Every structure is written in C-alpha cells, then in structure tokens.
Amino acid sequence: MQCPYCNSSETKVTNKRDNASVTRRRRECLKCSKRFTTYERVELDLSVIKKDGRRVKFNRDKLFEGIDNNLQKRPFTSEQIDAIVGDIEAQIYRCAKDKDITSSKIGDIVMRKLKKVDKVAYIRFAAVYRDFADIEEFREEIKKLK
Fold it and tell me: Which of 27, 39, 79, 140 is the most buried (most CB within 10 A)?
C-alpha cells in the first residue's frame, strides 16, 4: 500500500475493523508519519439482467447513488448510507443464482430494506420503482405503511 501523501510503500496497519461487507484499515506511513484509512471490500463478478433482457455488470456505485438519492434530506450520515448499501449488496450476492440476478429482484431487496430503515425513502423509491400512474396508487402505498 502506498502512502497518498509521499508515495512511500512502507506503511503499517495501526487499527483494523471488520464489517459484514467491508474491512477498514487505519494505516500510518513509516516515512512521513501521516495516517490514512483504506477500505477493502469483496467484489464478485455479478451480472444484472435488465427488464429488456440485457446483461450489465453489477455496479455498487450505481446502487449507492440510488439509495443516497432516496435518503436525501433524511437524517442519515454517509457512513450510515454506506452501511445500508453494504447490507443490500450482501443480500444481492446471497440471492444471485449462477452469478446472475434480475433488476426486479434487486428492486425488491432495496424496497424491503428501505421500508425497514426509512418510510419516506421507501415511498420515494416505490414511486419510481412501481411507476405509480396517479395519486391514488401513491395514497394506497402510504395506507399500507400505516
């Protein structure tokens, strides 16, 4: 691992924390003594099968962006959002059959998680995911939450 400050390759790990989906390492450069953090996460070769039949590579960043958009102006820190995305990603990997998963299955996983963590984010996501045609569909979904 190279130091981002001086590019020295001599660093030591001062602290390590394992999470369900990521390993966080606090490092110190032995040359300049500056500290920095690295994150290590498992990445599997996973394909998403879209509604039109296309296959695209699973993109965690795209998942993060979608969750982040739905949690905008809600009381969540970026670390909490990252943990939510990590939980969703772990479920996606567990549900994937033969390294493939449908986009609708991913949508269902996201819906369940958002319903647990934040009802407003859930409704925001559901409005787009279920493609509500009118305000009545929106009201019905809100009634289900009560």
Answer: 27
Are 64 and 82 a contacting pair, CB within 8 Å? yes
Q: Is 99 helix (H, G, I), strand (E, B) or coil?
A: coil
- Using N-to-C axis directions, what is the helix angle for 60-70 and 78-95, rounded to 10°? 130
Question: What sign has the CA pseudo-torsion 108, 114, 116, 120?
Answer: negative
Q: At what angle do helices 119-129 and 103-117 cross, to 10 degrees?
A: 160
Rounded to 5°, angle at Cα 69 from 66 and 71: 110
pLDDT digits (tens, 9 = 90+) for 43-62: 778 999 999 999 999 999 99
**Phi, psi for residue 81 in degrees, rounded to 5:** -65, -40
